[in-house]
């Protein structure tokens, strides 16, 4: 049993107090880079102003013999560059690997004051978060940090999905959760061989027409509709995150050339409640920026509804559409997100101002 009063006490003497609210900082794209790759590390100063989050990846995609180089590279990058308002995250190796402990010890000790969030892969249940929670508190105390490093879980095991609500609420350190469709597909024994996105075989077919004049239903041309393999998991993840006041994200989309399908997947996630996605290649950065920033005309509409609704109660008609307390709340979600993003992104702020003017 853990008393509710203990939840916000530091887990180590001298560690910073846990946060009561996850600070909302724009994180439309979590841009992955390999800090052990000198060419990529050299691009960090130019890349940082173009993204909301830069993530030094130590886990999958970094080969075994370059794990230490990636860790050392991240320490060097964090020390060498001031990233301005861009957050610095890392993805450490999984907790059952030989590198996870050294990843956490080295990074928090050496650059804990620079690191905003630690992404933990292959989380299976709240026990994984509890382990990281206590360890981070010990390391923060030793490093003399004055703010906690937050934790982000990747939802990429069948057990993790079964326990997603408990994971989301496992610690005040929890910042958010990302869908990890590649590992999740493998863990579930799905029969896909790709990183995120749809699959042409996962579909529904319209009913056959009535067979009056001969022919079998199998011969008739019938429209099919591809379905979204990830809908269930994303919706569950969004509910778990919203219920615990943390942030949900789409993860990676591996077909770098298929920018259209990437945009579709990101937009579905945005509409369902996600605040961002991973970007694996620069071409995906603008897609994430476009998709995870509310459209100017939606923001102008939301602001119009908010203004017309006064204290947010009652009902009004605007352009023939009924507005009440619930639409007012939806409009506030859009307008508040837009305001938070505009504060970081002057180009976006200008497009919102133009749409506002046009709506007058
Ligand atoms: C991400 O790590 C994934 O497995 O999709
Ligand atoms: Mg993975």
Automatic annotation (TrEMBL):
Sorted alphabetically, which keywords does the UniProt record give? Answer: Lyase, Magnesium, Metal-binding
Region Disordered, as annotated, extends over 197-218
Q: Which Pfam families match?
A: HpcH_HpaI
GO molecular function, a single term: lyase activity
Q: Which InterPro entries match?
A: Aldolase/citrate-lyase_domain (IPR005000), Citrate_lyase_beta/mcl1/mcl2 (IPR011206), Pyrv/PenolPyrv_kinase-like_dom (IPR015813), Pyrv_kinase-like_dom_sf (IPR040442)
Give the SUPFAM superfamilies listed for this entry: Phosphoenolpyruvate/pyruvate domain
The HpcH/HpaI aldolase/citrate lyase domain covers which part of the protein? 32-194
Q: What cofactor does this protein call for?
A: Mg(2+)
Q: Where is the signal peptide?
A: none
Q: What is this protein called?
A: CoA ester lyase
In its UniProt entry, the species of origin is given as: Actinacidiphila epipremni
